[in-house]
Design goal:
single chain; 341 residues; alpha/beta; Rossmann fold; N-(1-d-carboxylethyl)-l-norvaline Dehydrogenase, domain 2; 2 domains; eight-stranded mixed sheet; four-stranded mixed sheet; 12 strands
């Protein structure tokens, strides 16, 4: 299956590298500096599979038609990626991989539904610099159809990806994406202070903030009648259980989980974008809850404030201190309010 990966960031680079290593015909599409670095020196990957440099084919845009095109750019960059490469996208199978639940709706404007496939990436990676990434931890690649029932092509794509990653077919990829939204909910907090996940969640107040954001988000989707679907190896009860626990108990679980997730420093996707001086996907993660709350004409004040604060970091390049975050979000008051329930 002749494949193009559009987006040479953390996930796109890991995907292109390991599929290429598995002997597949893969072309990675990236920005000029990324393409130049990869073409000159190969793609360096270190992490859970060791350290190696893989000779990946890289181009600034599609040069021909491909059987499969995997979009690994952020949701906010999809439109530009489609417009830049549209000459060779007409007949391809299209696979999305973005966080949040909006990417397939954006892609639907440009592609036939029968050619569209959606996915959830459960492995983690960090963009170091052009041509260099860290593969932080392993995980499944979950494949499904966003608007139609799963078909033979879905299973064919999963079998192809299985060459490099554990691939699982889902009959309800959208329901699973709502659960994955909450898995990514913590990404906003390291972005506020400019530190790794491990450093951020070593602080128990930041763990408590994580729980408060989650409680508010679960409450909003409940009001909307949205039922998240369990991911392989990650049951929906894990998120619901955290949201229902006493704050300190749930914060302890967040602390233990996120400080041991990777031996290498792990920077959430939102912070990685900010460090590269790029707009982040905050509007498609915590911002999705804010959008949904507005549709329901209810409030999601904590998530709304965090979204605004992340945008402030994007615009100024200046991170908050933990003390400032506690004051800005009135964490002590928020904890007291939530403990009533």
């Amino acid at each position: 299956m002749k494949t193009a990966v559009i987006g040479a960031g953390a996930i796109g680079s890991v995907v292109a590298a390991y599929l290429t290593k598995a002997g597949q015909d893969v072309t990675l599409i990236g920005r000029k500096n990324q393409v130049e670095a990869i073409s000159a020196n190969g793609l360096k990957v270190k992490g859970v599979r060791g350290e190696e440099t893989i000779p990946v084919k890289a181009l600034p845009s599609l040069d021909q038609e491909y059987d499969l095109v995997i979009f690994t750019v952020k949701t906010l960059d999809i439109e530009d990626a489609v417009n830049t490469n549209q000459t060779f996208l007409r007949n391809a199978l299209i696979l999305s991989s973005q966080n949040g639940v909006q990417a397939d709706l954006h892609l639907k404007e440009s592609f036939r539904q029968e050619n569209m496939f959606s996915s959830i990436v459960m492995f983690g990676s960090t963009y170091v610099q052009p041509g260099e990434v860290t593969f932080n931890f392993e995980g499944d690649w979950i494949i499904g159809k966003p608007f139609e029932p799963v078909d033979d092509k879905t299973r064919e794509i999963a079998e192809f990806l299985q060459n490099a990653f554990p691939a699982v077919v889902s009959e309800d990829i959208i329901g699973m994406k709502w659960l994955k939204l909450f898995v990514n909910f913590n990404n906003c907090i390291p972005a506020l202070i400019g530190k790794s996940m491990q450093e951020t969640f070593a602080d128990m107040d930041m763990c408590r903030l994580s729980v408060l954001l989650l409680k508010e988000g679960v409450e909003i989707i409940g009001k909307a009648g949205i039922a998240p679907v369990s991911l392989p190896k990650f049951p929906v009860e894990r998120i619901v259980g955290l949201a229902q626990m006493p704050i300190d108990q749930a914060a302890g679980i967040i602390n233990k989980t996120l400080t041991t997730l990777s031996k290498e420093p792990l920077y959430g996707s939102i912070l990685q974008s900010i460090m590269r001086k790029r707009p982040s996907e905050i509007d498609y993660i915590n911002g999705e809850i804010v959008r949904l709350a507005r549709q329901l004409q209810v409030d999601a004040p904590l998530n709304a404030k965090v979204v605004d604060m992340v945008h402030q970091v994007e615009n100024t390049g200046e991170y908050f201190t933990i003390k400032t975050i506690e004051e800005e979000l009135n964490l002590n008051g928020a904890q007291r309010k939530r403990s009533v329930f």
